[in-house]
Automatic annotation (TrEMBL):
Keywords: Membrane, Transmembrane, Transmembrane helix. The chain crosses the membrane at residues 20-53, 65-82, 88-106. It is found in: Membrane. This is Energy-coupling factor transporter transmembrane protein EcfT. One of its GO terms (cellular component) is plasma membrane. CDD domains: EcfT. Pfam families: CbiQ. It comes from the Bacteria. It comes from Pseudotabrizicola algicola. Belongs to the CbiQ family. InterPro entries: ABC/ECF_trnsptr_transmembrane (IPR003339). It is a multi-pass membrane protein.
Amino acid sequence: MLTLTSPVDTPLHRLRAGHKLGALAVFTFGLFWVSAPLVLSVALLVVAGLYLAAGRRFSLHGLHMLRPLWPFVVVVALWHLWLKDPASGATIIMRMVTAVAAANLVTMTTRLSDMIGVLERLARPLAPVLPPRRLALAIALVIRFIPVLSERAAQLAQAWRARSGKAPRWRLFAPVALAALDDAETAAEALRARGGAG
């Protein structure tokens, strides 16, 4: 699987995972209580500034990781233009881009093992129903599989265009779903070989 943690060392790498995840939760919650364009613009600039402070290589990698978000931005923009309500569309887009960029910043600067540790502690109250280790590992695997599936979908789309010259659209659904099941089975076998999730 691909790792989302950036090899470029930044001051954010040295902060505790729990503090970063807590700050992310508060920051995202606040975004959805704010509708003033000026405040949302400032929040977006703050997140962009954190990327830029880590250097050009880190910023470009972060921008690349946000690439799957752009189709949603286009859809929201076109929909609100059609509704003749561009102000609401701009607010939604700024919220969405800022929240996803902030979450991406946390995953780029936090090791998977640290995330699992935080999620385990948060899941302890559920121990009688669901083992915290398994829940934390499941959430971490979902986070790590997202870029893998995105990359796999891009490869399948490229292969389709090379053969037909047309966009695959809905035809990619079945092969991407099968690839996801195959990757899940491979990950499950690897976990079983290492003694399970604990």
